[in-house]
User: Which sequence fits this backbone?
């Protein structure tokens, strides 16, 4: 606990990526594996289930400090974080028992104890929590209470944590990312296995890291090379997914590493036609009358864990593969795309899948014309195709956003993916509903606000978001709430220019919400550099 | 009986003695608690202020202004009202204002703190019937650590920066905090510290008043390609994030302010390090002071007044927030609150 609290303080005290990496590396090297496993678990963004409801914690802190509930409430409203409020209020007690650094148990014991408290008798819960609150020094008291509320978030991305562990253990970053995908139970053995340079036995459900595309510079697309070096495909407006068929079972992962099993029985049925030991990368789409349907229709399926007959009939989905990552149990990601594509075609011939078609165009003018068509199609059908994907024919399947391998060439409307950071209640019809969003992009590990958007979501979505915002508020500043940076929205806008008056240095013209990207983790939102690169379009 | 001090459009006003305390618009007669810009504003006809802070008041209000210096404890009559100034421990020459009229005593605290500070006279408890207290940090979450401990943390950070080849830029308010940091750091070093242009004059005035501080030099006095690595620089918060900072790269930034006690303000303001060093009373000090004055009525003003009012009422002390212009700032907009600890903090240059 002491080591993890120290790490947390170090990560909190710097905005430098290299300093954060160094701090995590030191922690992974120094902490006992049983603790480091849990430390990593939290660094990756996982949380424990909430052990004790916040209202009960507020009662207890009032009892323990002798402060009236009203003063506890005022303090909480000011600090905006319950665990921090608890730690500060306890620290402010002059008669507190002298904290003994040595007495805080190791992190894994702490977690075990918390988990054992979950269903325990309330009096026992209270006595245990009181005992800890009394003896833990400030930083540990804060972390302990964070764990109690199930709200511990560390200010680093999962990718950065993976990089730190890779550097510390000498394992390749891509391999490390792969090992950390999917379901993962923290233990000393699991942590040691992660650090092992030789590959360990992996769960059959484990997905590969997704290969991501970069936006192509519209002004000079040919800067990336000759057109015929690339394989062109439609950029589908669906949910990116990875379909795994191993050991007679199947798993469908979203790009946000969410297991989608059970939601799409059509895909499940089709997966039965795949041979064992194969993994496909592709898009989940609603397919009607031989064409892709607007994304809005797919949205009716996203939240449904067990869709009914009517839903299945109204919005039938397919999985349209465009890449092959594993065949006959062999990882083929290192093969050139051309070769993977041929193997995919052969595989589709003997299964119930149809690969995403490739587009025939041998120079940039032809590609541009195709993209123009995509734009017209988009207008006609409201959505379905977002533009073109250009993938180097000789490229390997990279982990993450590898420069120069895959490019996305979206249709003309400028869009960026932003993270919701602040919300404010709207006016008139939307009063008392948190509908006005401040959206941010990444600058290093920090989120910099770039746009405010007030429209674009449906009423149903607005109500759902309002509920989410209330449940995930970090702090309240009068009418404005800061929220956990988890929700991603695609923002469309008409123009962009440099602006010294805005903190981000850019001003967007007519930004609006194009889409709620529930499929996208916040870490994959756009960066400020990406956004700046759009200036002058 | 009528209230001895009431809030008006010009500021706190004593009708019986016909004078204002820290008026925010020009008035005939102004009693000033200390030299921060939200308390000492120019344009009034005549001023009264504590003698130890005279040079600071002149610097703020203007050298042509008529300022009557008063020794701490010296009594002066404003009509039927007897007025005296008493140390507030906030910054050099800061004062509480004691008003006595027909056997009733009111005290206007101005800004104050109870923690040790080598740059000014310690706070004096002045028994009173009614206490108008500041409440900048009027929440139970605010309790300061020993200033020596914070100074040690600042020094450690500076040494870490030195080891990593970074310039250490500590943002702090130009009047009071900067000098306190320079005085507290004498425990740990005798190295020269470099000052932003907004601070040099104020540091000199403190030295002239006999306050011992680390040796300092103006940043602007250094040659063009001066090596800033490992140096400690003091600059007002307003200088953060401006092109002025560029020449010191690579650097680490810190901010010395009571607001840094809370993680959220620390993170929002994007300083690398926050040091919770404040010239205002923390929660325990506010409670202790209210108790020690024996006041039967407490009127908290500017800051987090609500919690303090709540606490007083829980203790059976008559209390109500006193509306002043400071209340015009949004209470929960953290950025605005953080700037208001001392609005003087953003001078140009």
Assistant:
């Amino acid at each position: 606990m002491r080591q993890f609290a120290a790490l947390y303080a170090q990560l909190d005290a710097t905005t430098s990526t290299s300093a954060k990496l160094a701090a995590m590396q030191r922690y992974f090297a120094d902490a006992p594996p049983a603790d480091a496993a849990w430390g990593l678990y939290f660094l990756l963004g996982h949380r424990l289930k909430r052990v004790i409801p916040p209202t009960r914690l507020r009662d207890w802190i009032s009892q323990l400090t002798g402060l009236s509930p009203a003063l506890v409430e005022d303090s909480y409203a000011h600090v905006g974080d319950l665990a921090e409020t608890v730690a500060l209020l306890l620290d402010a007690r002059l008669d507190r028992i002298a904290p003994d650094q040595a007495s805080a148990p190791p992190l894994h014991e702490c977690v075990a104890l918390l988990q054992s408290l979950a269903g325990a008798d309330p009096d026992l819960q209270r006595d245990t929590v009181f005992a800890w609150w009394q003896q833990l020094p400030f930083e540990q008291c804060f972390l302990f209470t964070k764990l109690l509320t199930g709200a511990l978030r560390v200010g680093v991305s999962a990718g950065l944590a993976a990089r730190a562990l890779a550097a510390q253990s000498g394992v390749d970053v891509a391999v490390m990312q792969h090992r950390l995908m999917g379901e993962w139970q923290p233990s000393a053995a699991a942590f040691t296995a992660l650090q092992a340079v030789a590959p360990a036995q992996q769960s059959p459900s484990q997905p590969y890291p997704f290969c991501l595309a970069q936006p192509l510079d519209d002004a000079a697309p040919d800067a990336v090379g000759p057109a015929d070096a690339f394989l062109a495909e439609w950029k589908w407006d669906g949910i990116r997914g990875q379909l795994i068929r191993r050991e007679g079972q199947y798993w469908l992962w979203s790009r946000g590493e969410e297991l989608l099993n059970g939601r799409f029985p059509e895909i499940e049925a089709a997966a039965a036609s795949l041979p064992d030991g194969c993994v496909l990368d592709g898009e989940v789409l609603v397919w009607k009358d031989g064409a892709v349907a607007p994304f809005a229709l797919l949205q009716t399926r996203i939240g449904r864990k067990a869709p009914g007959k009517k839903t299945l009939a109204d919005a039938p989905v397919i999985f349209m593969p465009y890449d092959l990552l594993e065949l006959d149990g062999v990882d083929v990601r290192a093969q050139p795309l051309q070769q993977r594509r041929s193997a995919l075609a052969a595989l589709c011939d003997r299964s119930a899948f149809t690969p995403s078609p490739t587009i025939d165009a041998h120079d940039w003018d032809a590609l541009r014309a195709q993209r123009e068509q995509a734009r017209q199609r988009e207008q006609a059908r409201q959505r379905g195709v977002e533009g073109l994907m250009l993938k180097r024919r000789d490229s390997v399947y990279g982990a993450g956003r590898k420069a120069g391998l895959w490019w996305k060439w979206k249709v003309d409307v400028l869009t960026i993916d932003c993270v919701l950071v602040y919300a404010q209640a709207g006016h008139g019809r939307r009063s008392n509903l948190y509908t006005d969003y401040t959206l941010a992009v990444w600058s290093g590990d920090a989120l910099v606000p770039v746009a405010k958007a007030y429209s674009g979501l449906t009423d149903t979505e607005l109500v759902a978001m309002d509920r989410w915002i209330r449940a995930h508020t970090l702090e309240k500043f009068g009418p404005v709430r800061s929220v956990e940076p988890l929700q991603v929205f695609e923002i469309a806008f008409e123009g962009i220019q440099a602006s010294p008056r805005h903190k981000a240095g850019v001003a967007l013209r007519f930004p609006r919400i194009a889409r709620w990207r529930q499929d996208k983790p916040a870490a994959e939102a756009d960066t400020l550099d990406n956004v700046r690169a759009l200036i002058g379009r | 009986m009528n209230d001895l001090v009431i809030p008006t459009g010009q500021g706190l006003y004593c009708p019986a003695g016909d004078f204002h305390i820290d008026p925010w618009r020009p008035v005939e007669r102004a009693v000033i608690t200390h030299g921060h810009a939200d308390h000492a504003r120019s344009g009034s006809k005549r001023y009264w202020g504590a003698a130890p802070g005279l040079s600071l008041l002149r610097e703020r209000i203007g050298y042509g202004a008529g300022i009557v210096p008063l020794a701490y404890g010296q009594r002066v009559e404003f009509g039927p009202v007897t007025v005296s100034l008493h140390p507030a421990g906030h910054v050099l020459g800061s004062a509480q204002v004691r008003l006595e009229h027909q056997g009733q005593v009111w005290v206007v605290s101005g800004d104050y703190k109870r923690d040790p500070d080598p740059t000014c006279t310690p706070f004096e408890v002045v028994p009173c019937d009614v206490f108008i207290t500041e409440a900048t940090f009027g929440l139970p979450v605010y309790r300061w650590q020993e200033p020596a401990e914070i100074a040690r943390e600042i020094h450690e950070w500076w040494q870490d920066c030195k080891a990593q080849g970074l310039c250490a830029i500590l943002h702090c308010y130009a009047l009071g905090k900067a000098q306190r940091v320079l005085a507290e750091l004498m425990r740990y070093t005798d190295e020269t510290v470099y000052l932003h242009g907004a601070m040099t004059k104020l540091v000199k005035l403190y030295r002239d008043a006999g306050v011992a501080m680390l040796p300092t030099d103006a940043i602007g006095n250094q040659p063009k390609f001066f090596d800033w690595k490992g140096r400690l620089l003091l600059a007002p918060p307003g200088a953060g994030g401006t092109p002025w900072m560029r020449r010191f790269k690579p650097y680490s930034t810190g901010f010395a302010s009571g607001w840094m006690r809370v993680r959220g303000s620390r993170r929002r303001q994007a300083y690398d390090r926050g040091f919770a060093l404040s010239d205002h009373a923390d929660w325990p000090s506010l409670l202790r002071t209210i108790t020690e004055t024996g006041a039967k009525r407490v009127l908290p003003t500017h800051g987090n007044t609500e919690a303090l009012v709540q606490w007083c009422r829980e203790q059976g002390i008559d209390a109500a927030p006193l509306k002043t212009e400071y209340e015009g700032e949004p209470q929960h907009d953290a950025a605005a609150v953080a700037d208001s600890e001392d609005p003087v903090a953003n001078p140009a240059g």
